[in-house]
Prior knowledge:
The protein is an alpha/beta fold. The chain has seven helices and nine strands, in the order H-H-E-E-H-H-E-E-H-E-H-H-E-E-E-E. It has helices at 3-20, 27-47, 87-96, 98-102, 138-148, 162-165, 180-189; strands spanning 56-60, 79-84, 106-110, 123-129, 149-159, 197-201, 205-207, 210-212, 215-219. Strands 3-2-1-4-5-9-6 form a seven-stranded mixed beta sheet, with helices on both faces. Strands 7-8 form a two-stranded antiparallel sheet. The longest helix is centred in the N-terminal third of the chain and has 21 residues, at 27-47. The termini are far apart.
Amino acid sequence: MKFTEKLRTVWFKLMARQLRLPSGLLAKLTGNRMNKSNALLYQLTLNNLNLKNGDKVLEVGFGNGKHFSDFNTKAENLQITGIDHSPEMVHEAIINNKAFFASGRLNVLVGSSDRMPFDNNSFDTIFCVNVIYFWENPSAHLQEVYRVLKPGGIFCAGFRPKENLSKFPFANYGFIHYTESDWKLLIEENGFQFIRSQNGKELEIEMNQENTPFDSLCMV
């Protein structure tokens, strides 16, 4: 392997580790980059939540929390909780949402979605954006989501499908790739009823000297 190829491999592995768990000196930069690359997928996901006034909402893996303010355009008096396994991202979210915290309608904590410190039937809506790739035992996470979701509640996952994600070199390191049918089968195996999918087309980015489209998928 040539030296430049080794450097590229090291860089892509570093990117993958940071996307899985933003940490250290690169955590803030990673959070900001995720805001930019996830913006359209985040909106696609929010639009599929069908939020109602007063709903209790849980976001799994919220990054630096800059999208929390978007909830205010969807419904009134929402109670928002976020859980993320990166202490750095929880710290950034607190800094980025001082007014929201002051209102008493937002709470964030460090934790993992396969062991959540919430009572059964706690939330009307649970969602995640670009998180499911990193669940090494996805059924453990899905069973916890099912446990803390109210009967009849909504769980929504926004992600890049396998046919798109596989085009990005960093996704070869520690990412689990899902097709739409893969994810549908997995959620049904863990007690959920599939409702709908919505595809989204996003801006192309340059990768390996080619313009590569971001395809988004939101599954409810």
